[in-house]
Amino acid sequence: MSLSQMKIKELLDENRAHECEGFGESNVCVRIAAIADLPSRFGDFQVVAFYNNRDNKEHAAFVKGDICGAEDVPVRVHSECLTGDAIGSLRCDCRDQLESALTKIGRMDKGILLYMRQEGRGIGFTNKARAYGLQDHGYDTVDANLALGFRDDEREYSVAAHMLFSLKVKSIQLMTNNPNKINNLTQLGVVVSKRIPHIIPPNEHNQFYLETKATKSGHLMDFQGKERLLEQGDRPIVEGMTPEQIAALQN
Q: Active-site positions?
């Protein structure tokens, strides 16, 4: 069952004049701006458009089922990738991750895909193209970002955390291979009850890219695109940890 018209009206009315102290260091405040039905090749969704006071970008949620007040909601936080999502670039696994997540959520009773406008892991499309140029000359994806003066990952999740809060989601099962994404969302108050591995097999063009994500960015997968299990040296998040304890794991 999707969000009812009564629930949609309630959410829109509540958000019309919503103001808060905000999430994260930037004090991000998010409001739901519009909700509509969205039948798709992956199933019947509802699209939720958001306004925020941080970046003036139009982030979106694609919602399956009635997620308001729900616990353990499967969620994929997907960062925009024009070359992958729209053009089908083989240099990354972004389109495969997007379509795999939508397919899985489309078969579930409820779930959410957050589509975040954070192109190029937060450096923007032009800089991503520059990074690709460096990669054409032997740089890996991390070193290319560093050479351009960025961190290896410039993404920030306060908008995503507030989006989940605006949708009244109590806890989530996060579809990810990235421990840092779990840590960042947890620090922002999102209750992550479980990680759902999101493994995409490599192709000849993105094998090195996936290897770099595993070896340099700590993604939980091996070089064949399979899940990598936590090892003794890894510092896992366990149920009951406070946000401060989780933050300490990164130090």
A: 153, 155
